Here is the input.
Amino acid sequence: MVRVRQMLVLLLMVVSTGLSAQQAQPPPNPDAQAIAEFIKQVETYMELHRKVEATLPGLSDKATPEQIDRHQRALALQIATARTAAERGEFFSPRMEAIVERVLKALLKGPKGQELRKSIFDENPIGIVVAVNDRYPDEVPLSTMPPPILKELPKLPPELEYRFVGAHLILLDVPAHIIVDFVPNALPS
Amino acid sequence: MTSPPCRWLVLIPLVLAGWSAACTPQGTAGPATVASPPPAAPPVPLPNLPDSLKFAVLGDFGNGDSEQYELGERMAQVHTTFPFELVLTVGDNLYGSERPQDFESKFELPYKALLDREVKFYASLGNHDSREQRFYELFNMGGELYYTFKAPQESVRFFALESSYPEPEQITWLEEQLQGSTDDWKIVYFHHPLYSSARRHGSDEDLRAVLEPLFVKFNVSVVFTGHDHVYERIEPQQGIPYFVVGSGGQLRRGNLARAPFTAAGYDQDLAFLVAEIKGDQMTFQAITRTGQVVDSGLITRRVPPQQSGWPPVEAGPFRPGGSW
Here is the structure.
């Protein structure tokens, strides 16, 4: 009898400990989880980027355009080769994509929306097709990334940038000049 | 500070003949433009003193169009009489593709005459520029997105910023650099204008909130920017005159609107700025593709309060055209 009582007490303790642990932790935030996954992907990508870049001759601060171009294309080729199986959505998972679209919608439908849209489409033609691992289209000027949008998106290392190509939000590897991932038609119409 | 109607245009005839200005009678609205391009005339030389620091400012230029080449030729022509040693670029140095042939057609060829004469360009990056431009030898950025350098003459230090991604690290760097500078003149240049009346972009108020307090605190004397594809000079704000020199190639004709802070402006032709510093004074002229001087004036450097005995906001008397 005593043994049974001891067992019950023990069981109650285990259950209550589990419950209190559950109560102490807030339910997982799906946005935070998606952003954490995005950041993790960026970190993994940067490991690859740095590893590949280390195998190339460094770019001097007195480089010619040919040297810059050669470095860019060599880096792009090696990264693309290492990521041949890369697909759209590896960084911008469906949940992350939804976050991005929500952020953009809120800002572009907000009081400064018109201004932001004008700024994004400054020298930014629409109808350009983009793909993962593709070189940033040569004919397209780099678009403006308004600071209010940048403020709402996860911070990137200096080698990566968010840019718009038309209405697509792309993740651009700057030194390699290639598209790492993108959200198609991220801007609300 | 509010300008009386058309005052900024009234000042221009100091250096111009055959000039016609379009300005609304009240001067409170409408485009700050010139109705028809004035006839070509040689640029008026600045004081052009020996041993002064002579430089030019150019922005939003690299599109490879014929007009850009014509402005490049005008710069070279001005250089023969006013031998500026360096050119500050306020960004958007290359539009569109940035292949080797683009560096050639959008930069090296339009300014070939200047480059051949060993004029040095010190670039800052605009929102359309790739960060890889910082490695380009002829932009003299030393591989950095933001940097500072001392002028070859006079007690002048330039600070080139990257205003598309003004990360906190850069702001901290700027504060340290400004604080540590003992130079008489601190001149800052970057792409996005803290003040602009142009319709396309206008003032970047978020950036202003971050940078202006530093400029005021550390006695920055002049600020050059671009982004809006016009020429505009701003009435001193807290003692500091600002310039928008985004008129180097991608001109937006008729884009300029007059704001209360507008001191002078021009949006009917491509233009660049030349400036000369000697001692405490800087003279400047904005010169168009056709060689017209569309603005000119004199700026006295800001003096720290402990040196001048008065607050910085009063320490920089600004006399456009030398007539105030």
Remarks:
- The first strand of chain B starts at residue 21 and ends at 22.
- Chain B has seven helices and 16 strands.
- Chain B touches chain A at residues 95-100, 102-104, 127-132, 134-137, 141-145, 164-166, 200-201, 206-207 (CB under 8 Å).
- Chain B has one domain: 7-34+52-320.
